[in-house]
Amino acid sequence: MMMGRVRQFLLAAAAKVSKADKGFVERSLTPELQRLFFAMSVPDQCHALRTARCAGKLAPDFPESVDPAFLTRCALLHDIGRKKGDLGTMWKSFAVLFAALCPERARAYGDGGEGLLSKKMRVYFHHADIGADMLEKLGFSAEAAVIRGHHKAPAEDDPPALRLLRAADAKS
Ligand SMILES: [Fe+2]
Ligand SMILES: [Fe+2]
Questions:
Q1: Which residues contact residue 22 at a Cβ distance below 8 angstroms, ignoring those fewer than 6 apart?
Q2: Ligand 1 center to residue 165 CA distance, Å?
Q3: Which among 47, 54, 96, 98 is placed 20 to 30 Å from 11, CA to CA?
Q4: Whole-model pTM?
Q5: What three-state secondary structure class fits 160?
C-alpha cells in the first residue's frame, strides 16, 4: 500500500500525456467526456491512462466478459471527481497521511465544513461520488455506477467492470 503510494507520487512528478495518449482518449470518449478527462490534473490523466491500459490487460484473464469500450471509459473517467487544482500532489500526500494517522478527524473534515482543509478532505474521500454524479447528469449511468463503487469495500455482487477497475487502479 505505502510502496504503491510512493510509486504514484514518483510517477506524478514525471507525468506527461503523449500524442498517442491524447489520440487514445479522443477515440475512447465522446467530446463531453473528453472535457471531463482533460479537466483532471496531468498526473491524474496519466494515472487514468495507466489504469485503462492495465484494466485492458487484466480483462482477458477474467472469468466474466466485459465490454472493452465500457471498461476503458470507466477506467479513464474513474477519478474525474478530482479536478485539476482540487487535490494536487502535496495535498494528496497530506490527505493520505492525515487519513492514516487520524482517521476519524480526517473523515469529519471530509464530511462537512467550509474551510480549505474540509474542501480537500471532501475531494479525497468523496471523489468517487462526485465523479459519478457528474456522469449521471450527462446520462452515463452505467459508468457512474461503476465509478461510484471504486473506493468502496468489495462486495459479492460487484459487477466485473468494477472488480477489474479496482484491480487496475491499485496497480496504476
Ligand atoms: Fe479514485
Ligand atoms: Fe485512481
A1: none
A2: 10
A3: 98
A4: 0.89
A5: helix
Judged by its nearest atom, the ligand closest to the C-alpha of residue 49 is 2
Ligand nearest to the CA of 152: 1
Cell of 160: 466485473
Q: Which among 82, 69, 60 has a CA at the least distance from the CA of 131?
A: 82
What are the chain's domains?
2-12+19-92+123-171 (1.10.3210)
What's the CA dihedral at 55, 61, 62, 65 to 10 degrees?
90
| Residue reference for cell 473528453 | 34
| Nearest ligand, measured from the Cα of 131 | 1
Distance 47 CA to ligand 2 centre (A): 7
Ligand 2 centroid to Cα of residue 169, in Å, is: 5
Give the 3-state secondary structure of residue 145: helix
